Structure prediction request, 373 residues.
Amino acid sequence: MVNPFQFGKVVQDKQFCNRQRELRDLISAIKGGNSLWLYSPRRFGKTSLVVNAFSQIEEVKTIYFDLFNIRDNREFATKYLNVLTHELFTWKQGITSILKKLSVHLKKITPTVSLDTMGNPSIGIDIKPNEISQTIESILELPQKLNFPKPICIAFDEFQEVERLDPFLKNIMRSVFQHQQNVSYIFLGSKESLMNAIFSDAKSPFFQFGEKMKLAPISRSDLTAYIESMFKETQLKIKNETIENILHLSECHPHYTQYAAYVAWGLINQKIQQDENFKQIWLSRIIESQSDAFRTIYEQLNTNQRKVLYALSYLDGHSILSNDAMIKYNLPPKSTINTALNSLLKKTLILKSNGSYKFENPIFKIWINKLYD
Prediction:
């Protein structure tokens, strides 16, 4: 039998758990031609939500583009042009016809086509250093200029990466996007402070460009029903206590719930009994699988950052800056704690919500606990 739980990749169909309200809201915005920016912590299901919404829409042409692995604005220009070309042109028209149409709309750019070993075409452009901004502007204008027969919605994943590529890139984007009538955008991001700076700072060119949408955790009841349904479908039985342990470990984080359920399903499929020892077996498998990665991360932290993580692993949302916490966990002065917290936030090892701090990865939290046992 195939394990029904999936993690570390986009999930669709049966593996896509709930999010029905968010799915309806997103589909409605796309069909209405409205732009929005979507924030959630990493591995919370943003991409899966957008992909599932796109799969249910026929009257709008939907395009997905990930900025995470783009190294600079020159690579952005080339890869984005390739995505647009493959999505908005029919290659049956012939390469010569496509190149001719591109040349009409791209200012001072002569595109070329090369084929990989499988015969798949790729667009190439020769960009002069002093013409990068103009080239990017021309490419960004393409979706509107091509007069595509359907409205277009383009999703930029990990949109906060524009700051790394070139801080001026978002100025070019905004100047182009605000004049497009038949194209809407979804901007996905996993770093709240950067996304807020882009869309909520009055000095930012993207200030109030599109509605904000923030993904909340999936409810405990929905995750319980989802786990039960996946086990039932594969004709395996899972005890309520095991489900409770899964959700306690994962803190109802979608990715870690899928991962923990995946491990539990594998053990149960191997006929390992869900007795008093099952939790220890199941938990040990999860922690051992992540231990090497956690140790690499931990070795790169200084002493104060390690102390702060250790304290947070026990505080469960209580203030780390309280006198009681500082004494109990032998913490440094408050200014040093704040420096460590800010560094850990930048490393996305912790998250800040409503003034309190928590681990981004609940499994890492348990690993820290056990490290000092």
